[in-house]
Design goal:
- The complex is a heterodimer.
- Chain A contains seven helices and ten strands.
- Chain A is an alpha/beta fold.
- Chain A has a single domain, classed as Rossmann fold (3-Layer(aba) Sandwich), CATH 3.40.50.
- In chain A, strand 1 and strand 2 form a beta hairpin.
- In chain A, helix 3 packs across helix 4.
- Chain B is of the alpha+beta class.
- A six-stranded mixed beta barrel of chain B has the order 2-3-8-5-7-6.
- Chain B contains 13 helices and ten strands.
- The radius of gyration of chain B is 35 Å and the shape is elongated.
- The two termini of chain B are 33 Å apart.
- The chains are: A alpha/beta, B alpha+beta.
- At the A-B interface, helix 2 and helix 3 of A face helix 1, helix 10, helix 11 and helix 13 of B.
């Protein structure tokens, strides 16, 4: 068995909101193998978002060790973290986080712009992915002209466009109706099963968690599997 | 895979501006008006300066005049007659001074002139042929008298436009004879119309005759009232003015404690004052215009700051997807530069158009100053960088987590 794609040991993270110190992560140990489909659950305030930010390299841990895709990312600086996010992590957000007044195609191309990919290849790779998710006739539509399910599919295409090592989804069905939510989960499941993508879903819905191979529960800043 | 290219940054910035077309246009208008007003105002100022220069040239700013009589009324006069101690010899001495191009002595009297039954009270002036070019005066009809006439104290004269009209009506007076104090003078020519002087008198109400004729036949005295001195330019005029004064004091044997018994003046003084006021005018207009440019710049900063706040989430998304701090910084900076650059360019056109329009409406001369175009355009670029840098810095330094969480 190869080394885990995500390896966290004793990760702590504190932050303060309005002067009140919150000890959000209190010694998280986490190991995820390549090709796994993992769900992380927990009640609100359990530190799910903080953990997601640390896994996604949006926020470095205060203490502890974090290895992502065979590289130590514990103490990387801002630009290096931006590079890791660009190359290694594909984000899917609850609220889609697409750029308004920007076509689906341009939204999907965005990570490739920061990766320095030339325009023609950007367009080609974005188009392929959007077609794959059934949005061939929506390439030039703006987010406001798309349904929630379609927007989330654009977001998944954007997450995948730079061939990341992990796909990190934060409540991906949270803003969707049941049918669209299932559609999105089908896509994630399919990517995991047929393309070997490592998928991590953070959710509080049991139907969503049920799709995963493994469910981890975050409670008071600590994980128990 | 490499890094983001400059072209990609420009592309991003342009797309972002395109998405916020109205906001971008409103911002650019600030710069357009700023740059436009700098160019228009400096154009008007330059035109006015040119107008002043032209007017002064008509006045003859390079002339110095020496008049008889003391400028000081106080003190005891040394002896009688000091007020009229200017002679033709003085004029000849002045001609030898360095920087003097020509000298014209001048003596005048208010007199009655007659032609057949008509008579007219006017001013009769004795001059030399040098007088005409110094006064930049031309002839309407006939010709002027020559040195030959002066040597012989010939009974000839040249009429001012008004005198010619009053005595002869529409008839051509050249060749006819008028009476000046019982002396019959043949009319050689008529001067062109010069109009009203700055002091309000009719400059065309005059009869010119050889200075010798005037001195010997008309008034019977040899003093003169005035010497006109021509120099090549304004600066020389100021120097010659000093030299003439010293020379005259010397020639009149004035003691250091005695006042001048003559007055030396020149339009160069007036010219200096006018040019100074035109310069002040230029600075005034320039400052007003600069203020509007700065206001335009603050407009850019304002919009860019609002834009940073409004686009915090966008910045967060971009950061999450792999944009580095400097990518965000570059995007916002390029946005500001594109705004101020295109604003500057449009402002140049607007400024030129406005200057020409104002010139036409007000009939003021307007000249577009090339350096003002360069200056205004460069300044607008600078405004873009300076007022774009702070918001860009602010945008780039947001933590990605905070930016993403922003609602």
């Amino acid at each position: 068995m190869s080394t885990p794609i995500i390896l966290m040991q004793q990760v702590h993270k504190r932050y303060s909101i309005g002067g009140i110190e919150v000890h959000a992560l209190r010694g998280v140990d986490l190991s995820i193998q390549r090709g796994e489909f993992v769900a992380i659950m927990g009640p609100s305030g359990s530190g799910k978002s903080t953990l997601m930010n640390v896994i996604g390299c949006l926020d470095p841990p205060d203490t502890g060790i974090y290895h992502l895709n065979d590289a130590d990312v514990t103490a990387l600086g801002g630009d290096a973290l931006a590079r890791v996010r660009n190359r290694t992590v594909g984000f899917v957000f609850q609220s889609f986080n697409l750029l308004a007044r920007t076509s689906a195609l341009e939204n999907v191309e965005m990570p490739l712009i920061y990766a320095g990919v030339d325009k023609r290849e950007r367009r080609q790779r974005a188009t392929v992915l959007l077609k794959k998710f059934g949005l061939a006739d929506r390439l030039y539509h703006q987010p406001s002209q798309l349904s929630g399910g379609q927007q989330q599919r654009v977001a998944i295409a954007r997450a995948l466009v730079n061939s990341p090592a992990i796909l990190l989804a934060d409540e991906p069905t949270g803003n969707l109706d049941t049918a669209s939510g299932e559609e999105v989960m089908d896509i994630l499941e399919d990517l995991n099963r047929h393309e070997g993508a490592t998928v991590i879903v953070i959710t509080h819905e049991h139907e969503v968690a049920a799709r995963a191979h493994r469910v981890l529960i975050l409670r008071d800043g600590m994980l128990d599997g | 895979m490499g890094e983001m290219t400059g072209i990609a940054t420009l592309h991003l910035a342009l797309r972002a501006l395109q998405r916020n077309r109205v906001r971008a246009m409103l911002t650019a208008i600030g710069v357009i008006v700023g740059v436009g007003s700098v160019i228009a105002m400096l154009g008007i100022a330059a035109g006015s300066q040119q107008r002043v220069a032209d007017e002064l040239e008509k006045l003859g700013t390079n002339n110095v005049s020496v008049r008889a009589g003391s400028a000081t009324r106080s003190g005891v006069r040394a002896w009688a007659g000091t007020a009229t101690r200017l002679m033709v010899a003085d004029a000849e001495a002045i001609r030898e001074l360095p920087g003097v191009v020509a000298v014209a002595p001048y003596v005048r009297r208010p007199l009655q002139v007659r032609y057949r039954g008509t008579n007219w009270a006017t001013e009769v002036a004795g001059v030399t042929p040098a007088y005409l070019p110094i006064k930049l005066w031309e002839l309407e009809q006939g010709e002027f008298f020559t040195d030959w006439h002066v040597e012989r104290a010939a009974h000839v004269c040249v009429l001012g436009y008004t005198v010619a009209f009053e005595l002869f009506g529409l008839k051509n007076p050249v060749g006819d004879v008028i009476l000046v104090k019982q002396i019959a003078c043949r009319v050689l020519g008529v001067l062109s119309k010069k109009g009203t002087s700055s002091s309000g008198s009719d400059q065309d109400d005059i009869v010119l005759m050889p200075i010798t004729t005037m001195q010997r036949k008309i008034i019977g005295k040899t003093y003169i009232q005035r010497i006109l001195v021509q120099t090549p330019d304004q600066d020389t005029a100021l120097r010659v003015q000093q030299a003439v004064r010293l020379l005259m004091r010397q020639r009149h044997r004035l003691q250091p404690n005695q006042d001048d018994d003559f007055r030396v003046g020149s339009s160069a003084d007036l010219a200096q004052a006018s040019q100074e006021s035109a310069r002040v005018f230029t600075w005034l207009l320039g400052s007003i215009a600069s203020v509007s440019l700065v206001v335009g710049g603050i407009g850019i900063m304002n919009i860019m700051l609002v834009s940073v706040t409004e686009r915090t989430r966008e910045i967060g998304i971009r950061r999450a997807l792999g944009a580095r701090r400097k990518d965000i910084l570059a995007q916002f900076l390029v946005e500001a530069l594109v705004l101020s650059g295109t604003g500057g360019l449009l402002g140049v056109f607007l400024g030129i158009a406005a200057a020409l329009a104002i010139g036409r409406l007000s009939e003021l001369p307007v000249s577009i100053v090339p350096w003002s175009v360069g200056l205004a355009f460069m300044f607008s670029g600078l405004v873009g960088v300076i007022f774009g840098l702070y918001p860009a810095q602010k945008a780039a330094s947001l933590r990605p987590v905070d930016a993403l969480r922003y609602e």
